Amino acid sequence: MLENVLKDLISINSSTKEGANRAIEYCHQWLSGHDLPSELIENNGYKMAVCEIGSGDQTVIFNGHVDVVSGKDEQFIPVEVRDKIYGRGAADMKAGVAAMMCAAKELHKKPIGVKIQLQIVSDEEIGGFNCSGYLAEQGYRGDFVICSEPTQLGIALEAKGVIRLDIEIEGDPAHGSRPWEGVNAIEKAFKVHQKLLKLPFAKESSEFYPYPSINLAKIDGGDVYNKVPEKCVISYDIRYLPTQNHEDVIKQIEGITDGEVIVNMFSKPLITQRDNPFILMLEPIVEKHTESKAVFFGQHGSADTVFFANYGIPAIEFGPSGLNWHGNNEYVLPHSIHLYEKMLIDFAMRFSN
């Protein structure tokens, strides 16, 4: 059943809003068809399915997204070869969603002493503000959040924060044959980039990270060959450490340029403590099913966990094993999906004891 749900989801091209909404509708119908109390919610045209089961004083949220990045047509045809299932979203993160759905189906038959709230959302890849962000704002929060991103069955306690910014750099135009009479904005931008990479924040490290992530993502400058460019815009995706402050990072960048620094988006980093009671409950379950020590680490990227962490709710990324998400040969290991489903069920059953 689990593999069938996953393959059905992969078959839906959910790289657009319309496609992601179709995937949500599939999940809602599947849950309802198995007598689970699924509710369809819509915000700004983006759909979500929310299903709550169990009872108790605490609520654990199972959160997963069905939207994916764009892919080739053939990537939306699931292919199983030996011990791998290939397809767009196989790892990121339709496998985790399928496992959470099947776990909810099994848990619905059992007397569990905790509320499990399954949230399936449709806009994580474009920021998550319309779905998980909206749900958190509307009070769908709980006491602990598991986001089923692919983590190789490890537990991601931390995630870097995000800063997306543009630096608008002004030059002085001149004729292309006499560049010494002007100031080349592109050359100025290149010097700013070199300085940025040497800033104090860029050299810092923490327990899980050797350094922040600094990606020069876009550059826009010049318009014709025979003119010294008078303006250049360089755009960055910076993933700063949980130990760093985003305002300090921005001030450091502002200090190396006379250009205008425009912050388009930022999100806070995530830190869940290693000795959190929920983590201490989950750790032996992971070790039981993997037959090895639980692996704790920090994610370089960001996920919908951040929306719950903003309210002080402990949240982790924890999901099946796979590779090449967002790549051409994305796959997930079916064996890990079944282990993951069993771990989720065991974790929920721990509240009954």
Q: Can you describe what's shown?
A:
There is one protein chain. The protein has 353 residues and is α+β, with helices and mostly antiparallel strands. It has two domains: 2-159 and 269-350, Zn peptidases (Aminopeptidase, 3-Layer(aba) Sandwich); 161-267, Alpha-Beta Plaits (2-Layer Sandwich). It contains nine helices and 17 strands. The strands form four sheets. A six-stranded mixed sheet has the order 1-2-6-3-7-15. A hairpin with a 7-residue loop joins strand 16 and strand 17. The relative contact order is 0.19. The model has no long low-confidence stretch (mean pLDDT 96).
Task: Give me some keywords for this one.
Aminopeptidase, Alpha-Beta Plaits, six-stranded mixed β-sheet, four-stranded antiparallel β-sheet, 9 helices, 17 strands, 30% helix, 27% strand, elongated
Give me a quick take on this structure.
With 353 residues, this protein is of the alpha+beta class. Helices cover 30% and strands 27% of the residues.
Distance between the amino and carboxyl termini? 28 Å
CATH topology heading of the largest domain: Aminopeptidase
Largest sheet: 6 strands, mixed
What count of domains describes the coordinates? 2
Coarse structural class: alpha+beta
**By CATH's scheme, which homologous superfamily of the largest domain applies?**
Zn peptidases
Q: What is the number of E strands?
A: 17
CATH secondary-structure class of the largest domain: Alpha Beta
Cα Rg: 23 Å
**Portion of residues within helices:** 25-40%
> Helix-strand pattern, N to C?
HHEEEEEHEHEEEHEEHEEHEHEEEH
